[in-house]
What we know:
This protein is an alpha/beta fold. It is about 40% helix and about 20% strand. It is built from 22 helices and 21 strands.
Amino acid sequence: MLNMKYILVTGGVISGVGKGVISSSFGTILKCCGIEVTSIKIDPYINLDAGTFSPYEHGEVYVLDDGGEVDLDLGNYERFLDITLHRDNNITTGKIYQMVIDRERRGDYLGKTVQVVPHVTDAIQEWVEKVAQIPVSGSGKVPEVCIIELGGTIGDIESMAFVEAFRQFQFRVKRENFCVAHVSLIPQPRSTGEHKTKPTQSSVRELRGLGLSPDIIVCRSEKPIDQSVKDKISNFCHVAPDQVICIPDLSSIYKVPIFMETHGIVEYLNDRLKLGISPMPPARKFMKQWIELSDKIENLRNEVNIALIGKYTRLEDSYTSITKALQHAANSLGYKVNIKFIDSSKLEKAMLSEDPVVYHEAWHELCKTDGIIVPGGFGRRGVEGKIEACRWCRENNKPFLGICLGFQTAVIEFARNILKLENANTAECDEMVEHPVIIDMPEHNPGQLGGTMRLGKRTTVFKESAALSKIKRLYGKKTSIEERHRHRYEVNPKYIKDIEEAGLKFVGIDKDAERMEIFELENHAYYVAVQFHPEYLSRPMAPSPPFVGLILAAKDKLKSYLARGCKLSPREHSDYDDTGS
Length: 581
């Protein structure tokens, strides 16, 4: 292939219909064919990035190696395609307008009136072409196909400039290098029981009216769609029947690329974009690892129950990467993970007087699980509940993994109950606290929230004294590791010596030996917490070590696993292999 190929994925009828997973699946299929793939996510909001969003707005904020705070769909792309994206792979209206305004201030437009067309639309096209050329895989090769997901739905006023940009773009790069996949919902009203195609017809008509004709229509539905419905969509939306792919809800998102491949998507894209895939490989061979992974997940016999003690549990997308990391770790060990989301504020003593039933139900759910994870978050709400969960895990030898704020709340709990510093707290919740065991970092600028945290991939060094540490052995006895960070606060150096002497060992530090990164409690099944976010680098085929440790400890298998040099016993291997048979 000489020219870059582009696949634009748009959405119709409603948002949240699965464009991210379908975009990732296009990439997965092509990558399995030996093609280098990159991805771009376009979010039409005016924010410069996702960094200042509440998780209830768009789900979690995903962090990249370079510190970019982006939409969670980029996490899907990285997990599916095993690539490393950059902050410029996430385009927002804010970024585009900032770039255009900066050019105008410099005088780049030579005194002309700056308008949406051509200046904003040209800026969008230039951004896409530039980012598409940046290598994102370990091979360092320039991508051959760029998959672009346009957020929202066709017809949204926010995305009009982007739609117009791609209308022009299809002529700029030529037809054989550009195709459009339109993802639309096919509702099935309970009153009639039949699938309705009118919303999709209207959505495709609107897309055509804006100058883009879909080459592929991906129909999403709860239940499988009849051939007659598919034929109707083909007829009224002016595409061939083999260009309509109907994807019902599947038991695992990892089945989506396999499902799409069985419906001839490789053959169509090879012909439409002149990809030069020859000869066409049999699916069972070139998608072998995905088929095996899907089969194993489908047939898992054993279960493990994990409680997630969070602040944003009303929307499970707030913890997408943690959920995926738990699944990756559990599946690799032969377990199906059941995650119980518990609002940390329900565990607080204040809730006992406010609503005793809710308080006791929350604690009952927590006590029933095999392990606890306390993830990150911001602000004071629910912090005391997280501290109580940390205390209960420490006192009851319950496997525990703390991440970011979970790391900090565990340090606060230890200072209060072991060091007897009753008023210990974080400066985030109480600036005048008597014992600030958690303080803000000197480089943090409190006057501006966006992009001012400690962000991106950074090195963590294991102390020499940590040779027998569980977490170091889970990381393969490496002397240092690299993980992604997103935090404003750190452990106060003034209290580190006292904390360690009392038994909570900081086994991992930053390369300047200034910041505490990992701690591990002595004489406990698994009481580990990390300041970084290990979930961001977890992959379906390469689970994150802290999560592997939590799952093993939850099933009382960690000690034997470490004794065998981080290997499953022959019997455990046999149990796991049987699940895929």
